[in-house]
Amino acid sequence: MKKSRKQEARMKFSQPEVMNPPRTDVLVMTPWFVPIVWDGTFNINLLNQQFKLRDVKIGLTVFAIKKYVVFLQRFLETAEKFFMVGHKVNYYIMTDQPKEVPNVTLGEGRSMIVLKIQRYARWQDVSMRRMEIISLFAKKQFIHEVDYLVCLDVHMKFSDCVGVEILSNIFGTLHPGFFRMQRQNFTYERRLESQAYIAHDEGDFYYAGGFLGGTVEEVYKLTNQYHNAIMTDKANSIEALWHDESHLNKYFLNHKPTKILSPEYMWDCKGEPKVLRKRRFVIVPKNCDQIKN
Ligand code: 2GW
């Protein structure tokens, strides 16, 4: 026992240098003092050690409804290679066609749970109802099985490591199309009648709908609140411009995330900005005619 503690204390990490910050080309801290995660700002070995000591278990939720089941194979195969390697992971696959879920070999400590869910006719509802479904399962199942939830789009692939550096109470991701823009140009919902309304002189960042997460408790609060907002809009016959993404942006305006992921974690492969040293999770182009109904 004594020996292992000694060994632990001897694990060597390079010293963080106050006068020599690793990144000076991008914002790494928000005005409410939470980190923005960019390559170079963290030491993954150090973080892995900390999270291992807590023996954390991570749940990944992903929806594959109708034709989107075709994206599952690549999504899961690349996740096995790059997502939370060395940690305990539950994949929660929410689908209307459990038989179409591919059989992917999983590493040790990793499981797949297929949850059959109803298919909605309108694609806007497929996207928006994800929030309701996550909130329901968070309360009745996920809370008993995992510590954190990571909620992702399926038309994506991992192409570099995504590890415990992303975990925090509640986190969002900078949308790749907007991280260099002024807030007036964000595609927030601008109609006052919608619950997702944000004024032109408000808003911190434009967050992507396809990558968010946090502790199960916090993700429950978020999904439950934004499902309620979506339902209020429905009752008032209004639908926010970017559906669930608009409501997510409103939620994060009032409940600031406790960590923010850079566009390394949601990249659309448009251009090659110097600040993007890694492309960890990238959008797989969908042939709209074939995939969307
Ligand atoms: C969605 C739109 C139109 C036709 C089909 C679908 C669809 C989506 C579907 O038939 N089946 C399905 O499983 N989905 C799930 O929703 C799937 O997990 C997919 O990755 C996710 C988002 O799909 P989609 O096509 O809306 O992607 P984007 O790139 O337009 O999504 C952004 O904007 C959305 C709101 O409109 C969401 O916020 C999304 O998270 C964003 O990335």
From TrEMBL:
Annotated source species: Geotrypetes seraphini
GO cellular component, one term: Golgi apparatus
UniProt: Mn(2+) binding residues: D153
Domain of life: Eukaryota
Single GO MF descriptor: hexosyltransferase activity
Keyword Chaperone recorded: no
Binding site for an alpha-L-fucosyl-(1->2)-beta-D-galactosyl derivative: H175, T187, E245, D268
Membrane topology: Single-pass type II membrane protein
InterPro entries associated with the record: Glyco_trans_6, Nucleotide-diphossugar_trans
Sites where the protein binds UDP-N-acetyl-alpha-D-galactosamine: F63, A64, I65, Y68
Protein name, per record: Histo-blood group ABO system transferase 1-like
Source lineage: Eukaryota, Metazoa, Chordata, Craniata, Vertebrata
Keyword Glycosyltransferase appears in the UniProt entry: yes
Matches recorded under SUPFAM superfamilies: Nucleotide-diphospho-sugar transferases
GO BP annotations listed: carbohydrate metabolic process
UniProt record similarity statement: Belongs to the glycosyltransferase 6 family.
Subcellular location: Membrane
